[in-house]
Specification:
The protein is an alpha/beta fold and about 775 residues long. The chain has 27 helices and 18 strands. The strands form 5 sheets. The chain has a 6-stranded parallel β-sheet, sandwiched between helices. Strands 11-18-17-12-16-13 form a 6-stranded parallel β-sheet. Helix 4 (about 90-100) packs across helix 9 (about 220-235) and helix 13 crosses helix 27 (about 765-779). It is globular and about 85 Å long.
Length: about 775
């Protein structure tokens, strides 16, 4: 184990010698590092036979690369770890499983996987078709006070989005429960009472699945469902995988769903945690595990479970696993200064002991965060109580923007003489995307160019956009406008040279005004022996054009001719040909290679697609409509250290796993962080629905009722809405905790009165304001 001195709690984890182990880790505790160290220790200890690997399951693609790099660093000779470990996201693991035996779950060998964008498009078509066929179906759920014109407006402008969200939740939850449209239909027929929202959900689900089947495709949720189905029904295959993966290390386990837990329980040789009783560690001679026990380590922080609203995840699954198995707390964190830790710990304490809503007191749990003990790394920043600010002033939304942006501007101005490498990292965290857009606009008006955390970075989008412009021209070679754009892409490396860009501007303008593009790109015509070559395209230019412009157009024309000749190549080879001519950066060339593979797969999945359709795929990436992980260093995992002195604007959800020296948290009011107190409003409860019902929650409750075998657990209207409020209150408390624990040194928290002017500080904000003011007086 090279260059690693484990802290006391990490030492306990590295004593692991098999069996089940649950680890509750606080923010900044180093979960990735300790799992990487444990994987390296298992490999170095000779626990694996030939053909066996340590399986590491993590949440996002960027973490895959992070794990792989860290594990290799624990070995003087990284070759010793070669083929001894495998890092996968859950979707990647499910894909590996299903790809080995697709026929066993009813798929063709060449089945395709649609991404979130295409799945959303198909689902929206199903929603629209359902609405067209059932325009009055949901009228019973409308507020009776709505007049006829309002009802028509709601049907037209509000229901499509509401039903799309409901359908997504219903389909995802059905698949997590392994319920197909066929099995749901049988259950609906046998139901003792009508369940209209479940009928609605089933109808859209069935239509959606038919659309997938027509395409020979599955979505990401299908992959997980089918992987579990395969493992449950093919004992021989399961045994092979158990031998292949004798140790399973699971990261970010607080975001695990019921299906994910069942998959990993089966692979590890365990049964789901709710049935686990035998907790004795075991380490067998062959590095495997005793049936029913399993070598399964789960690491996570239930206090950072902030994705329940968007997924089928539940932190209670990890909490149950930790309760019922050997467990270790990892409470030391070197991220934040002691005063920030004190704030986070007081929030835990207040929630657990004093939150006015008793049901919300389980939102946060122990352990408290402890600073790293003396003598170990990393060392916490020095204590600076004066760097923590809870602003009590009541701001209107615009005033809050102005106050935060003014503070940021003043702070940046104070750093003017500080070398870039020594400047701090800075972030503004917002609870919602639309608030982030407002912050970005306000910063730019002040002359501050912020960084926004998005699904793909501007570098990735720019590279994809460049290739898109080239393919757009090749798909429409008669277009002078597209020819000019292709030229600008060809000279993209000149963008920082003012003199050369003037030449680019003149040349592009000439190309846009060419009346006959085919004349420009047509082959030169030999005039006979000794007479040279006639260049007809020159006749398109004015005699006054400079020789520099003529030469520039001639050079570009050579490339255009080569690109047109390459159009007959397979699309992946065409992409690589274009990339060689327009990219010089290694990251752009690597990205082009990845895009080539994406388009090759798209071409294989859609045999009728030609260049225009394939070009539209690149346009989607360039416009950031589809998530695409490129090779920009930002796309493989955002690193705040690379942006010292810059202001990052992001949502609290996207900030998870990151840290900054100075953090602003905005909009800490009772709308964005409700506590289900009188006057609190919930974003999921639409004003036009009667009784404040959350139709998405009610639909899922009707789905649950279908699975019930007891008449006493039957559906009760409104109960799910009340439960969803409680769940949302708890998740928003955890989100506030996540925001606070992003700060290393400076923490500034503000609130606003909302668009209607009646919002108040959230209960958590009020508590921390009062407590911190009292603490400050005593210091």
């Amino acid at each position: 184990m090279m260059n690693f001195t484990p802290r006391p709690s990490q030492q306990n984890i590295l004593r692991y010698n098999g069996g089940r182990l649950g680890i509750a880790a606080v923010p900044g505790a180093g979960k990735t590092h300790i799992l990487s160290a444990l994987a390296a220790q298992i490999i170095a200890g000779g626990a694996l036979q030939d053909g066996q690997e340590v399986l590491i399951v993590t949440l996002v693609n960027s973490a895959v690369d992070n794990f792989e790099a860290r594990i290799k660093r624990f070995f003087e000779n990284p070759l010793l770890a070669l083929y001894k470990y495998r890092v996968r996201t859950l979707h990647g693991l499910a894909h590996d499983i299903v790809r080995e035996k697709p026929a066993s779950v009813g798929l063709e060998n060449q089945f395709s996987i649609i991404d979130e964008r295409e799945a959303g498009f198909i689902r929206r078509e199903s929603v629209n078709a359902w609405l067209a066929a059932h325009p009055d179906f949901l009228d019973d759920y409308f507020d009776p006070a709505l007049d006829g014109s309002k009802r028509d407006w709601v049907r037209r402008d509000q229901l499509p989005n509401l039903l799309d969200s409901l359908a997504l939740a219903f389909i995802r939850s059905s698949k997590d429960r392994l319920l197909t449209p066929e099995s749901l239909r049988v259950m609906l027929e046998a139901a003792p009472a009508p369940l209209p929202l479940a009928e609605l959900g089933w109808s859209i689900y069935a239509d959606y699945q038919r659309a997938l089947a027509y395409r020979g495709a599955v979505d990401f949720d299908d992959l997980i469902r089918l992987a579990l189905t395969l493992l449950e029904h093919d004992e021989e295959f399961l045994e092979r995988l158990r031998f292949r993966y004798p140790f399973i290390l699971e990261d970010e386990a607080q975001d695990s769903s019921r299906t994910q837990e069942r998959i990993l329980a089966l692979l590890s040789g365990s049964v789901p945690s709710s049935s686990l009783r035998d907790s004795s560690p075991i380490f067998t001679e062959n590095g495997g595990s005793r049936r029913g026990v399993g070598n399964w380590v789960r690491v996570g922080d239930p206090n950072q479970a902030i994705f329940e609203t968007f997924t089928t995840a539940s932190p209670e699954l990890l909490r149950a696993f930790i309760r019922e198995n050997p467990s270790v707390d990892m409470p030391e964190s070197g991220r934040s200064q002691p005063s920030v830790l004190a704030v986070a710990n007081h929030l835990i304490d207040w929630v657990m002991r004093s939150h006015p809503l008793p049901g919300a007191r389980t939102a946060l749990s122990l352990p408290y965060i402890q600073p790293v003990p003396e003598g170990y790394q990393p060392v916490n920043p020095p204590d600076q109580p004066e760097a923590v600010h809870f602003i009590s002033r009541k701001y209107a939304p615009e005033e809050e923007l102005e106050a935060v942006v003014k503070s940021v501007k003043g702070y940046l101005d104070s750093l003017a003489d500080v070398p870039d490498a020594a400047k701090p990292t800075i972030a503004i965290l917002v609870p919602r995307n639309n608030r982030g857009v407002e912050v970005i606009d306000s910063l730019r008006k002040r002359g501050i160019d912020p960084l926004e955390l998005v699904s793909s970075t501007s570098e990735t989008r720019a590279a994809a956009g460049s290739l898109n412009y080239l393919l757009s021209y090749l798909a429409d070679p008669q277009s002078a406008r597209k020819l000019a754009k292709a030229y600008e892409v060809w000279r993209r490396d000149w963008r920082s040279d003012v003199e050369k860009m003037e030449l680019v501007k003149v040349t592009a303008d000439l190309l846009r005004r060419i009346g006959e593009v085919e004349t420009f790109v047509a082959p030169a015509i030999p005039l006979g022996r000794g007479s040279g070559i006639r260049q007809d395209w020159l006749a398109l230019l004015s005699e006054s054009e400079s020789q520099q412009v003529i030469q520039e157009m001639a050079d570009f024309r050579v490339n255009v001719r080569r690109w047109l000749d390459a159009v007959t190549l397979p699309v992946d080879q065409l992409i690589l040909t274009l990339a060689q001519d327009v990219f010089s950066e290694a990251s752009d060339l690597a990205l082009a290679h990845k895009l080539a593979l994406v388009l090759r797969k798209a071409a294989a999945d859609h045999g009728d697609w030609r260049l225009p359709e394939l070009t539209s795929e690149l346009a989607v990436i360039a416009k950031n409509e589809r998530r695409f992980i490129g090779f920009s260093s930002d796309d493989s995992g955002f690193d705040p250290e690379r942006h010292r002195g810059k202001v990052v604007v992001t949502t609290m959800h996207k900030a998870k796993g990151l840290e900054w020296d100075r953090v602003y948290i905005m909009s800490a009011n009772n709308y964005d962080f409700p506590s289900d107190m009188p006057g609190d409003r919930f974003i999921s409860e639409k004003w036009f629905v009667r009784g404040g019902l959350n139709l998405e929650a009610e639909a899922l409750a009707q789905l649950t009722a279908l699975e019930s075998t007891s008449e006493y657990n039957w559906y009760e209207e409104g109960a799910a809405t009340r439960q969803s409020r409680l769940d949302y209150v708890k998740e928003r408390l955890r989100l506030f905790y996540v925001g606070i624990t992003r700060a290393k040194r400076d923490l500034i928290v503000t609130w606003n009165s909302g668009r209607q002017g009646d919002a108040t500080p959230s209960m958590a904000m009020s508590e921390l304001m009062g407590w911190w003011e009292a603490e400050s007086r005593e210091q």
